[in-house]
Amino acid sequence: MPAVPTSECYAHADRLRGRVVLITGAGSGFGRATALKFTELGAKVVLGDVDAAGLAETVKQVSAQSGPSSVVSAKCDVTSWDDQVALFETGAKAFGNIDVVLPNAGVSEIGRFDPRLDGDASKLTKPNMKTIDIDLIGVLYTTRIALWYFINDKRADPGLRSIVFTGSMSTFYGSDGVGYGVAKAGILGIMKGIVASCNDLKVRVATVCPYFSKTNILDPSFVHPYPALGYAQVSDVVNAFVAAITDPSPKTNYAAYLIPDQWGVFRMAATGQFVGAEAARRSKEETAAFIKADKEKAKAKL
């Protein structure tokens, strides 16, 4: 699998100009770096983070680079549905619409799943679910709200629209953090689960999957298990986001962009291509009938 050249990542980057991009977890790391790059490319950004100080610093940097009119923000705890709704409303009120959504907020493993590593193993205790709440439930909230905004977009031709998730190489390599591993594997499940909806709405979808990278998500005491591989570069992660959003080819829709080490971006063939091919054959009438039948089934269960 050859690396995707940086020039290819930016071949269609002009498609970001004038787009409105909403990013959660924008107070540091990938979120801050993508906000800076996207506004450099002419996008407007809507930024959210639970870390108010980090968020303010990102807004300051974006404003200095691209002007204060290029950014709005709101403190946002992604585990709060109301916070996320308010973040989207902030963006829509300021810029009129939401075009691209990056459900990026995440944390590393909080607590340990093995009882021997998590307190007194002689007592049965409930596992800490905070990682799942932030890294998976929060992403589900962001995705649900994004779909609602896309469905209710009244523009005759909305143009480029996209959802790109922040996954992890742990989905493929495995992780000794059970909550983190489950959450990141679940993100690929979300991507595959929204194929029919996003095909109908003409929304591009992809997942960017970095390996260990030197961002705030890593504990300061972290020791790389395979130091010869080095760390995934933040710049490569940003390049992957640009490519995932802007590449117009149907062949790269639903792809996983892998940053496994310090040696660049790799693209794995569309993980939703088979489901996507079937869903693409559905007419709008068939999709509407499917959704109606699904609603009726749900009502029958109540």
Radius of gyration, whole Å:
19 Å
Strand order of the largest sheet: 3-2-1-4-5-6-7-8
Our measurement of the CA-to-CA distance between the termini, rounded to an integer number of angstroms, reads 49 Å
CATH architecture of the largest domain: 3-Layer(aba) Sandwich
- The CATH class of the largest domain turns out to be Alpha Beta
Percent of residues in helices comes to: 40-55%
CATH topology-level name of the largest domain: Rossmann fold
Estimate the global geometry from the Cα principal axes.
globular
* Broad structural category: alpha/beta
Brief overview, please?
The chain is α/β, with parallel strands linked by helices. 44% of the residues lie in helices and 13% in strands. Belongs to the short-chain dehydrogenases/reductases (SDR) family.
Features:
302 residues; alpha/beta; Rossmann fold; 2 domains; 8-stranded mixed beta sheet; 13% strand
